[in-house]
Design brief:
Rossmann fold, 7-stranded mixed sheet, 5-stranded mixed sheet, 14 strands
């Protein structure tokens, strides 16, 4: 079956629709996911196919419908719960952290929470400080939660289908700047991507660039720019922060001797620090320079584009980090 070209948001809708046709226990719930097709149109057409009992519009009460989703999952349903922005997940931390993440452990496996929480992350749309954050590091810190960050339409479909089928709660984070990105996606209904398997997006020999979510694209652009300088950059996408494929990244760094880690979450205490620590602990003898980290600026995201854009990691910063590691002017 040939691949088809889809946008990121179309790949998400396809994955959800296929899983809802396959399994009647799967349903979608969230604010404006019904007739309007979602704030970013990720559920467009689903309400017409599945109806109001399986594509459920909710009031503006994240704490209410996330709690209801946890309860539904405990009874054997498989909710796909959409938050418009991951910023709003802070309202639901008790349900996610103290309930969903822990019930399976507290009951000795007798009770499961097969729930997928979808939410938009990232800056770049002038959405201001309360709608532009990237909380992947916070969720990855919580035992019992799995965290997926697709970087292209293909991975959006494959990882989302894996999340829906998982018997554990999954936090599925989508960079809002990628919803209209296009790419080839397998049309086959059983196409899934296992969690905990990183992918090498571009092979190289001189430096390893590790990027998450939309930062994979930044790393790929930086690799192209570095090639003009005679530097061969390998780009690795972890795809999931938990479970985490350390082996693929470590093997890459052992080959190249240099590593730059890029994530749009705030740099301090973030994903860049954890990945850098894993590299240092397991490939220290192979490193020819300290691991470089590039994260978002340590401040609330500004509304003004002229102030907002400099807070986001970009290609020049990645190129500059590599040049600094290699002592190039």
């Amino acid at each position: 079956m040939p691949d088809i070209e889809l946008t990121f948001k179309q790949a998400l809708a396809l994955a959800m629709s296929e899983e809802m046709r396959r399994d009647e226990s799967v349903f979608l719930i969230g604010e404006d996911v019904g007739p309007s097709g979602g704030i970013f149109k990720c559920s467009e057409g689903m309400f017409e196919e599945f109806g109001p009992e399986r594509v459920i519009d909710t009031p503006i009460s994240e704490v209410g419908f996330v709690g209801m989703s946890v309860g539904a999952a405990m009874t054997g349903m498989r909710p796909i719960t959409e938050l418009m922005f991951n910023d709003f997940a802070l309202l639901t931390m008790d349900q996610l952290v103290n309930q969903a993440a822990k019930i399976r452990y507290m009951t000795g496996g007798q009770c499961k929470v097969p729930m997928t929480l979808r939410a938009a992350i990232g800056a770049g749309r002038s959405s201001a400080a309360q709608h532009s954050q990237s909380f992947q590091a916070i969720f990855s810190h919580i035992p019992g939660l799995k965290v997926a960050l697709p970087s292209c339409p293909r991975d959006a479909k494959g990882l989302l289908k894996t999340a829906i089928r998982d018997d554990n709660p999954v936090i599925f984070l989508e960079d809002k700047m990628m919803y209209n990105d296009k790419g080839l996606v397998p049309e086959e209904e059983d196409f899934t991507i296992p969690f905990g398997e990183a992918v090498i997006k571009r092979e190289g020999t001189d430096v390893t660039l590790v990027g998450t979510s939309s930062m994979v694209g930044v790393c790929l652009e930086a690799a192209e720019a570095l090639s003009a300088l005679g530097i061969s950059a390998e780009v690795v996408d972890p795809r999931t922060l938990f479970p985490f494929d350390a082996e693929t990244i470590i093997n890459s760094v052992r080959k190249t001797g240099y590593a730059v880690v890029v994530d749009e979450g705030v740099q301090r205490y973030g994903a860049t620090g954890e990945i850098a620590a894993v590299i240092t602990e397991n490939a220290f003898d192979y490193l020819d320079a300290p691991v470089a980290r590039i994260g978002a600026a340590d401040l609330p995201v500004p509304f003004s584009p002229s102030l907002e854009m400099p807070t986001i990691p970009d290609v020049p910063r990645v190129v500059a980090a590599v040049k600094a590691q290699k002592n190039l002017n």
